[in-house]
Amino acid sequence: MSESNSREQQEPRPTEDSCGTSSVDNHLADSAERNQLLIDSMVEGLALHEIILDEHGAPCDYRFLEVNPAFEILTGLKREDVIGHTVLEVMPGTEPVWIERYGAVAMTGTPARFEDYASELDKHFGIVAYSPQPGQFAAIISDITERVCAREILHQSEQRLAVLFDRAPLGYQSLDEDGRFIEVNPAWLEALGYEREEVIGAWFGDFLAPEYAEAFRTRFPLFKERGAIHSEFPMMHKDGSQHEISFEGRIGYNSDGSFKQTHCILSDITERKQVEEALRKEHELYLDLVDSVTSGVYRIRVCPREQWAEDAWVNPEHSPVSVEFFSDRFCELLGIDRQVYQDNPGIVEGSVHPEDREDFSRINVAANVGMVPFLWEGRLIVQGEVLWARFESTPRLIADGSILWTGTTYDITERKKIDAELMHLNENLENLVEERAAEAVQANRAKSEFLASMSHEFRTPLNSIIGFSGIMLDGMAGEVSEEQRRQLSMIQASGKRLLGLVNDILDLSKIEAQTVSVDLRETNVMQICSDALEQVRPQFEEKGIELRFSPCKAECTHCGRAMLDQEKLTQIVLNLLSNAVKFTEHGSVECRIDCAGENTMLVRVTDTGVGIEKDALEHIFDEFEQIPMKGQAKPHGTGLGLPISRKLAHLLGGSLTVTSTPGSGSEFTLQLPLHFADGSHE
Fold first, then answer.
1. What does pTM read for this prediction?
2. pLDDT for 206-237, tens place per residue?
3. What is the three-state SS of 78-140?
């Protein structure tokens, strides 16, 4: 080893030369060099300063005496720019707190350690300051900006988590390895009514319904093994009541993979369970109501049109239909098994008689493409026998492009047999005119008499359907969902429409069967018309149509004491007003009473509606005739209102006529003879 290398590895020992100073100086020089090398190689910044005092002896500034390279890197201040200058010269915005802290170190000799933010440098620094000699201080600085920022982010994150924990709407709990509580949040405590000190450290099984405590002891190890759980079971509220709770749980692990604690979210589903039970009972009631209807009820879904196969409507295997709901009566009518139909709804299309299949497919496709009600009557082959059936359903488009069809079907085989017999009679009418005509009249009268005598049997089930659905819609049988309300409303509306049809048919049948009697009594015609207007006024107000009433002249003495059938007059006036509002979109409708001389009274109903084309006027009083008005969809109703009104007018000895101008409106005129209590005209 060379001498120089030996000196580098051994601490030189000072020796005296002839003057006694040479070796000491060399030693000091070497030491200073090593210290400077150490300072220059530091990763921390080092700066030596002298404190500057004001006239009162208080620190007011400090001067840079020396800095190391790390100081330059950390602060961005160059050595040549700071040495000999004061801090306020270099950084005028330096906060006074820095001068105060460093002044205390320089003047007392007491070291200081602190962290602070230097606004001039926009950095956070960790500082160790000490005084190497009176009036001076040295500062060792470290840039802790990233650490402070990270700490602040962590702090904010912890604050956010704390807020989420405390304000979360769902309960949270954490258990240790033995199933004892480590933590719960306020939502948990609020849901079950306990105080925190009653829960922490307690065994979870003690808060379960008694019959579930041992089950938890068995299942908790499985939860820890599997790492997750989803379950529902009852927990005990502090007041002794049971609450149904839904659990979603996960296991938390230590860094070495060992069990640390559980994390579970709890939801109180007691109300949901109660609602589900109520809905279940309501659904059962709904099914009972549906099954009590004589027709079959069904609901099917047709997939979006782009998914149809080419032979979708004639090949049951490619049917685009899926079953949503169907009643037992539906299966009974069609003679099919519930499960078979559920698995293969195309069985209905496959059951269509080959001769009717093309017609069924055409109407079915047109209804689905045009989103119009489906109405089909035709033959089905059911268990080897031919059955005539009628299908009626209405569509609703849903978000995915599918169509929901809700409808009914009923067996019309007997009706078709009667129709076939009537057709056969008509075909032979030329040869057996008198005989067959008499039989047809008798058969028609028998039918009318039968319908007239069966009014109670027809109306009772319909009133039951309307009444029970109204009870459910009013919430008297429990709360219903929006979907159930919509379906019940459809049932009720269909029942009302069907009841209206039955009433019209029965009224017509009674008239034809000549079982309607006229009950003449002294009647105030103006009061009858006024009451009728009040009944229909809401319909007019809903459409924004003005409804006017023009009674007979004040001096008239006839309208208040004419002998008329009040019920039939009311029915006629209501029919005319309802007909007017149906075909009037804007403007007004007027009911006007006139006594034409001493023997005749006129009741006119005039509207500003679409009017009636000339070629349709002659059919306006035909039974079941519904005249489509220009620019309007086919009107609702049975087409019996006007025919019944005219027949009732004839029963009263009068007439019902109409005049109309297309685009301007129509006027219906009821003409009745005037009779009085003394049996004379006046």
1. 0.33
2. 999 888 888 888 888 988 888 888 888 888 99
3. CHHHHCCCEHHHHCCCCCHHHHHHHHHHHHHCCCEEEEEEECCCCEEEEEEEECCCCCEEEEE
